[in-house]
């Protein structure tokens, strides 16, 4: 059996499950629904692992497999087909998507057990997984856009899953509309690429681009900026980032899958996939790095002030994706993908853990009302701790250390990077460790807040344990020069993505930077310990000062972006549409019909039913016809 | 057989036709309108006969015979209709039957 | 011989004008007969004796007689003459007269700018007409027969006295 033929099954299984659940979901029992829902993604995960194994042991030529399913359209010069392409980059992504997706679905079978709309939830989740798989396996940009839109739709459906509460509907709409702005930029970018190259096939574009465009070409720059616009929307980076905190209105498994591990990384995938275009437009690539750096700081400060545990995690996601963008912006392609993979594991674990805590504490989201849970919920505590260690990048023992440190080092060392960007990343790392530790200490330590009433079952704790394992051990496949120089991951990725260009830096600076970063995260954890466990009084008195209160509310509200957008964009549009309630444009067709009625009323007098009148009109017609024939 | 210039013949037919038309436009009584129509038909037949004279063929007269038979059928049916009309409206004013207005 | 043509023409036009201006229906019909007879004379002069005969027999003899019978059936008498006087004021003639005058001028102009040569100038007698009718125009003869059949059926049905059938409620209303 040719392995490429298995590709379509990986994509088709979730869609098939979606159809089954969509049509028959409400007729099946809860258990059957759960089994069906989980089995689809499980099969895809299994096949992915199989494919990955064969990729590693007997790699195909050029490290890529293609499989054309059918020709989609052939019109006006655009020839697109539905064809899938598996190379090392997309293999990493589909592994993350199917494997973590499978674990999250197992978790959800118990988490969503008593909700109505059980089958609907799993149908949407499977549709999401299918769309995301299409996005990363797509051979051409149009199919990628199909997956892109699909995940946007599923995000809307799943955020607003509990639709009976209108607040969830608003959050879902906000997410959809903001990502739509990015999508518009992306489709315009697609139009531009098609006009330039006559094809939307990714491989063809990437091989034709360097021949057509010199480095710094304005068209390349425009295309790169448009693609960046799409990525920014989906990945919740500045300036389209305000939807992500509000998207926490959806169930926790949704937050874990969509807003931590997969959809928000679609932007990262896009930029990594079209790397050639970004390399030909250095200004755009620099913009990627700057956006990443600023977002990670903005989100980090905001995360420091949140009290809702899921919002902390949301801002944390925003911040970590900022790291990935930073890496992409300086040309550290494999570091960005590595961080993506590690981040997916620990962030999904964090969200699932937070969901479990919220569930056993009767839907209490406020961290400050929790406390003292480390004895009462041991499994959740230990898995959450491992994930938080990864997020805070505690040196040597967590996977997050290796990935984040790689990014920081390569930012410093790259020709496109530099000390300033490294410094911003470094400050961000400190803040990350600080708010992560704050979250752990406030939630699990200290005096007991609300009592947990139940212990979570096996189906919840087992995925947590598996993810914790990966969060701990996942980093060991990519060790830096100073610690053993294992390059399994980057070697794998470099079959698809280019190497980093290292500038003029000393070899020893890598060790120095690692030590600095490692120490910083430990200091931050220590500071959080002091502030939130030992000397709470200090924190309370700091909070009372005026400057801190203002800063606190400013950062908590997401640096005022929401208010700004509300006043600049939303209010004028609502006002304008209100005064246009009777729709000026409607006057044209209405006016036309009014004019017709008027003419009818005038002309109706010529039909007065009298025979002699009609004869006279016939005579008149005869006269006119003869006059015309005389004159001509 | 006379050798009248045929333009005069056609002019005569035209004048007769238009006299009938005037009658049709002016009179309100249905019977008079029908009579005016007869005058017009007759004028049309005269034109055909002139054509027959011009070419020396019988086709014009054949056409005239058809006009004649058509006029006969039309008068029969038309007068029957007028009887019904009079029975319904009790008057011969053609303007009484103007329900198709508007 | 040309004079006869012009005299007949004058009589035809004059009596046609008289037809449309009379108040009494029967008078108008008699004038119509005169007009038709003079047109028959014109037909004879133009070398179409068969057509002339047909004009007299069928048109003047059958169709107009039918007209007269129907008028007599309608019992319109003195009352109708007065009504006609009311309806036929002089002002009624202006509009149609104007239209028709313009039309007349135009058509005469169009005729005058054409040149029609006078042609063969022979008499087309009944035999020729018969050969044409039952030769090339056979199908038209059949169609004319069907037309006349339709006319008969229509005239029979439409001219019938229809008895009104009243609903029993209305009949009771009538009686009670």
What's this, in brief?
The complex is a heterotrimer of chains A (632), B (102) and C (176). By secondary structure, chain B is mainly alpha-helical.
List the helices and strands and how they pair.
The complex is a heterotrimer of chains A (632), B (102) and C (176).
Chain A: H1 7-24, H2 30-57, E1 64-75, E2 78-87, H3 88-111, H4 118-137, H5 141-159, H6 166-197, H7 202-212, H8 218-234, H9 243-246, H10 252-261, H11 266-273, H12 275-279, H13 282-305, H14 309-330, H15 333-360, H16 378-392, H17 399-413, H18 419-444, H19 458-473, H20 488-493, H21 508-534, H22 536-544, H23 546-556, H24 561-579, H25 587-603, H26 611-631
Antiparallel strand pairs in A: 1-2
Chain B: H1 6-26, H2 30-55, H3 59-89
Chain C: H1 2-21, H2 25-45, H3 49-73, H4 78-87, H5 91-113, H6 126-133, H7 138-158, H8 168-175
Helix pairs in contact in C: 1-2, 2-3
CA-based shape of chain B = elongated
Topology order of chain B in helix (H) and strand (E) letters: HHH
* Continuous helix count of chain B: 3
> Could you name the ranges of chain A where pLDDT drops below 50 across 5 or more consecutive residues?
none
Specify the structural class of chain A: mainly alpha
Strand line-up across the major sheet of chain A? 1-2
Estimated structural class of chain B: mainly alpha
User: Class of chain B, according to the CATH hierarchy?
Assistant: Mainly Alpha
Report the span from N to C terminus of chain B. 54 Å
Quaternary structure state of the chains depicted: heterotrimer
Number of strands of chain A: 2
CATH topology of chain B: Helix Hairpins
What is the alpha-carbon Rg of chain A in Å? 29 Å
